Structures are given as structure tokens and as C-alpha cells.
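Data availability (excerpt). All sequences and predicted C-alpha cell strings are deposited with the supplementary files. A representative entry, Isochorismatase, is shown inline so that the format can be inspected without opening the archive.
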Amino acid sequence: MTETALILIDVQRGFDDAEFWGPRNNPGAEANMKALLDAWQERRLPVVLVHHDSVKPDSPLRPGQPGNDFKPELDGARPDLVFGKQVNSAFIGDVDLDAWLRKRGITSFVLAGIQTNFCCETTARMGGNLGYDVTFALDATFTFDLPEVTADELYRVTAANLANQFATVKSTKDILAELS
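C-alpha cell line:
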């Protein structure tokens, strides 16, 4: 039986900069991310932390800036793998995530983090295309308004885009209940 990894995407302090990003949705996302992390660590299941290393000069996610650091909800994390990326997908980063997962016989993962419709959705799509059994913890993600589209609308569209194509979309509560 293979283990299911938890992949937390871009859970970084720079996303707290409301002036830079604008209005966000799902204020409970971080608590759900932490609940998933705690459950995975209690069971000694694989945990992967990915951070976005922006190359944009004005981004709060640039390396060397406080915003590049992980949020406090990840304090005490004992990840099996930590790496950076400069694009939307965690499969295109400083580490070959696909090779790392396959070497360990991991064929499924739960995905959570920031932003729902960019890095999280892109990683879920690529994971599905690569043959992984992807569970998308929707309520353990959040995003920001875009011109003409609210964060809540983007959140719902991501769920619809992923469901039954690239990933199974579930709540943190349902994921945790399945671990018990």
C-alpha cells in the first residue's frame, strides 16, 4: 500500500500583504492547512513544502524578503522535502517532484496552499496528467480577486475545472475523516 503525501504550496507570509494582492477569500484556509499538516505529521506520512521564489522585483515573495518565509501555521513542520519554484507548478521547480514521489512509490497526494486558481490548480492538473491520484483540499486554499472576477468565483471555477478530470475535490474535514 502506498502512502499519500501532503503537498503544501506557497504557504508564505508575503500573501498577507493585502495592499499588494487585494481582497482574498476563505479566511479559514490557514487553519485547514495546519490541520492537514498536523494530521500528516502525527501519522508520519510524507510532507512536501513548496515555496514560490518570485523573480519580479516588486513581489513580496522574492527570496531574501520576509514575505518569502513560510507562514506561522507551518512553524514546527518536519517536511520530508522543501524546495522552491519560480513558476505555477510544483512539478517545475528546484527539485524534480515527479521523480521524488515515484522513487518513494507515492502515487497519491493531497494538495493545499495558495493560490487556489494558480499554483494549486496548476500543480493539481499536472499531477493528474502525470497519473497521480490527486485530492484537492479546496477549503485549505485561498485566492484573491482579479479584475472583473471575485476570489469566491475563482475558487468555485477551480473546483469545477478539477473535479473528475484532474483531481477529487474534498473538504479538509472529509480528508481527515478518511485518515482516521
